[in-house]
Automatic annotation (TrEMBL):
It comes from SAR92 clade bacterium. Pfam families: Aminotran_5. Residues 27-400 form the Aminotransferase class V domain. This is Aminotransferase class V-fold PLP-dependent enzyme. Keywords: Aminotransferase, Pyridoxal phosphate, Transferase.
Length: 408
């Protein structure tokens, strides 16, 4: 079984050789990852050599457009979807907002949307606002004892009026990796569409969206070693079903129908750098051709590396008195996003003490406001959140554990 070459990986990230970051450990990757050098170089090249309106016949305009097209096509290949099913915008919140506007004209009063109380607000709030149009919103609630979504609770909500079920691939607080394919199959059998928020999953390995069965899949590239760009996969059938949200003359252009604001040309071109990074990981670790299995093998490689670092952190937290771990205490189907509260201690205090030791973490509700309420945690206080990815070293995890042991 191939082991991740951590030295090779960290050499792909300028942050690890940046003098001002010397001695700093980044454990807030769920909020934003470091950028890989390939993306930084691609962005620099675009601004330096091709920063003109793209897709005209002159150079550098033609070259700029080709890089944008190439970025979309290569991303689609890794997600195992068609290029015209990949949409870029400023953020996942913007993508979900645009889809919600389309649904205003598509759905009828009495139609039902199921949302969860485990998700980031980006995959809850926009759908809930459709109540003003007469759409019925039903809530798939977590088990408050485990913070998990359970299929039995979805079964109780699905009915002949269900049109959409919106849920997260991986909670940005609980960390559990939900069984997307099992759930999308059930949702489709009920005649509904599945909208999946993959923001907290994609940084741990790009998903095979076709295999997952999602009708719309959202994620954000600034959490996947790239620019501040939202990616939305909208399957062709859904694109054709929903009304155009772009300029009227673009109604027949699949990638323009749900991008009403002009895209950031340079950032779309820099998607090539993100793909260059994943392909470098693949080429360095595997003697394999670029094929449809690349997404799975690279994802498994990254997951194994993360799991090795996650296990000692979970072991420490579950053995420490006064710590209330949210979610699973084992690594099974769990991302390295770990949240907890400490009896009698404000999460902000813990974050401040770690910051003094040059360890960066998150505290608060992290936009999972409704989840905080469901768990009985004051949303304005929230939790301590530790999150890392495959480039995090064993030494950094040990340093974090030692610091927590001193503080708690």
């Amino acid at each position: 079984m191939t082991t991740l070459d951590i030295e090779f990986v960290r050499n792909q990230f300028p942050a690890f050789s940046e003098p001002t970051l010397e001695g700093f450990s980044h454990f807030e990757n769920a909020g934003g990852s470091y950028a890989c050098v390939q993306m930084i170089n691609a962005l620099h090249h675009y601004y330096s050599a091709t920063k003109v309106q793209p897709y005209y016949g002159f150079e550098p305009s033609h070259g700029a457009g080709m890089e944008m097209t190439r970025g979309r096509e290569r991303m689609a290949s890794w997600l195992n979807v068609d290029a015209e099913e990949v949409h870029f915008s400023a953020s996942t919140s913007q993508n979900s907002y645009v889809v919600a506007q389309a649904l205003r004209d598509h759905l009828n009063a009495g139609d039902e949307i199921i949302v969860t109380n485990q998700d980031h607000e980006a995959n809850i709030g926009v759908w809930r606002k459709l109540e003003a149009q007469g759409i019925v919103i039903r809530e798939w609630q977590i088990n408050p004892e485990t913070a998990e979504l359970e299929i039995e609770r979805l079964d109780a909500l699905l009915n002949e009026n269900t049109r959409i079920v919106a849920f997260t691939h991986c909670s940005n607080i609980v960390g559990s990796i939900n069984p997307v394919r099992e759930w999308t199959d059930k949702i489709h059998a009920a005649g509904a569409l599945a909208f999946v928020d993959g923001v907290s999953y994609a940084g741990h390995g790009l998903p095979d969206v076709d295999e997952l069965g999602a009708d719309i899949y959202f994620f954000s590239l600034y959490k996947v070693y790239g620019p501040h760009l939202g990616v939305m996969v909208m399957r062709q059938a859904v694109n054709e079903l929903l009304p155009n949200q772009g300029h009227f003359f673009n109604v027949d252009h699949a990638t323009s129908r749900f991008t009403p604001a002009g895209p950031d040309h340079a950032q779309i071109a820099s998607v090539n750098g993100v793909i260059d990074y994943f392909e470098a990981i693949d080429a360095h670790h595997f003697d394999a051709k670029a094929d449809s299995s690349k997404t799975t093998r690279v994802g498994a490689l990254l997951h194994r590396a993360e799991t090795e670092n996650l296990e000692p952190l979970l072991d420490f937290l579950k053995q420490r008195k006064g710590i209330n771990l949210i979610g699973k205490s084992t690594t099974d189907n769990r991302a390295p996003t770990v949240s907890f509260t400490v009896d009698g201690v404000d999460p902000e205090i813990i974050a401040e003490k770690l910051a003094k030791q040059r360890i960066g973490i998150a505290n608060g509700n992290c936009y999972a406001y409704r989840l905080m309420e469901a768990l009985g945690i004051p949303p304005e206080q929230g939790v301590v959140r530790l999150s890392f990815v495959h480039y995090t070293s064993k030494e950094e995890v040990r340093r974090l554990i030692d610091a927590l042991a001193d503080i708690i």
